[in-house]
UniProtKB/TrEMBL annotation:
<protein>
    <submittedName>
        <fullName>Molybdenum cofactor synthesis protein 3</fullName>
    </submittedName>
</protein>
<dbReference type="InterPro" id="IPR050229">
    <property type="entry name" value="GlpE_sulfurtransferase"/>
</dbReference>
<dbReference type="InterPro" id="IPR001763">
    <property type="entry name" value="Rhodanese-like_dom"/>
</dbReference>
<feature type="domain" description="Rhodanese">
    <location>
        <begin position="24"/>
        <end position="134"/>
    </location>
</feature>
<dbReference type="Pfam" id="PF00581">
    <property type="entry name" value="Rhodanese"/>
</dbReference>
<dbReference type="InterPro" id="IPR036873">
    <property type="entry name" value="Rhodanese-like_dom_sf"/>
</dbReference>
Length: 136
């Protein structure tokens, strides 16, 4: 598998940085953009699954679901910050594409958000954070 490099460094975080967000109870949305068949194999329990293809096609029910999660998160945050959305996939390629799609939608089709890709995806999570996490 070729590793894509579509985003700048400030549009990405490492799995270790993402783990510290989780450990510090940082309010955020984790968006898993893998196809549902892969999500059924394994996923992080707090993730929201919307496949990359749905985002690219702007499927209204999926966009609405994401928008609802963003609104809920904004209400919980109760400040003016843009809610952070971290995007994950298996290897970190589709998630980069999804970040680009979401950045185009931010402020127009969706409320304004801060979007970052989790480098290396779930396979990096499995090797660097949780060795018990299934690899496929």
């Amino acid at each position: 598998c070729r590793k894509l490099n579509l985003l700048s460094k400030d549009q990405r975080i490492t799995v270790q940085e993402y783990k510290s967000v989780v450990d510090n109870s940082g309010r955020h949305i984790l968006l898993d953009v893998r196809p549902i068949v892969e999500v059924d194999i394994c996923h992080l329990p707090f993730s929201l699954n919307i496949p990359l293809s749905s985002l690219e096609q702007r499927k209204s029910e999926d966009i609405r679901l994401l928008q609802q999660r963003i609104i809920q998160l904004k209400q919980q945050m109760a400040d003016d910050h843009q809610p952070p959305v971290y995007v994950i996939c298996k290897l970190g390629n589709d998630s980069q594409k999804a970040v680009q799609v979401l950045e185009k939608m931010s402020g127009s089709e969706l409320d304004s958000i801060t979007v970052k890709d989790v480098c290396g995806g779930l396979m990096a999570w499995a090797t660097k954070i949780d060795p018990a996490f299934p690899q496929y």
